[in-house]
Amino acid sequence: MTEPEKIRVAVEIYGQTYQMVGTESGSHMRLVATLVDDMMREISSKNRSLDTTKIAVLTAVNTVNDAIKLKDRIKELENELKLLKG
User: Fold this and answer.
1) Domain residue limits, the chain
2) What's the chain's Rg over C-alpha atoms?
């Protein structure tokens, strides 16, 4: 079986350039980088005393929190769907 082709794209996140490599499209990877950059800048704007590492950790914590909430919501919707199907 052939592995999916890897795509490389240079992105900028919070003033640093990163080489992202993945099987997703370049536009998808740029979107992810933009969302991370936006979130880091929002956190930074609310507390100017945070260093980059703390901003990155808070971004990760917020992102994981959002992912958990979405997974929980998906489970709720799947359960509702099962009930509707009877």
Assistant:
1) 7-85
2) 18
